[in-house]
Amino acid sequence: MHKIYLKTAALLGALSVLLGAFAAHGLKQLLTADTLQVFETAVRYQFYHVFGLLAAGILYKDFTNKFIRWAGLFFITGIILFCGSLYLLCYVKQQALPLNWIGAITPFGGGAFIVGWFCLFAGLNKAG
Q1: Are the C-beta atoms of residues 73 and 120 closer than 8 Å to each other?
Q2: pLDDT at 2 > cutoff 90
Q3: Structure pTM?
């Protein structure tokens, strides 16, 4: 499981850099300042939680327990729900689509991030 987390973190980290560069160079002309800030928030939180996922992957090798495994799963879920919903929301706003309800998904991703950090703590606590 630890290699899956490490590989996923590496890919999501690369995607973070690509999306950040795309925002800085390609989206400035397309998005409003507020929408660009939302996109940049998604990139930032994705990158932060790539480090959490890396930690879970590294720790899971030596401290194999369900909490560290869950931490990795919650970090991945958070990236998909939190960051993914914000990326999608930016697209929806730019296209003027009537799908603003997508923003209601974001807090579930934020909750997954929080649970992931608590699981990481619990896994380390259980490990000794």
Answers
A1: no
A2: no
A3: 0.93
